[in-house]
Design brief:
Strand content: under 5%
Low-confidence stretches: none
Helix content: over 70%
Number of helices: 4
Structural class: mainly alpha
Shape: elongated
Number of strands: 0
Largest sheet: none
Number of domains: 1
Length: 111
Amino acid sequence: MGIATLILGLLPTILKNIPGISAKIQQIITDITASTSAVLASGVTSQPSINTVLAAWLGVINALKADPTFPQNALGSLAQVEKIVQATLLEDETLAKSIDWSKLQPITPVP
């Protein structure tokens, strides 16, 4: 989960520093940042919690893209951030599928 955790730590700063974001979207970013911080602080960086927060960030990105007042010159940067989030979600999903849970067995303690 290292890359997902890193991305979750960076996204709030990246998005908050894009100029021209409306106060409403800024508030949503603040709210999701609080959720992100809670997830990271809890140490529960399992797939459902991380993916849920990443999906929320994708929602913010889509809202920004649909905002007619969003600065056109920032759309390229926003598209790159979107690619990073999508790639992180895809990589996490791929890794989760690659684990064969049936092969995991309890470890026998050494006497």
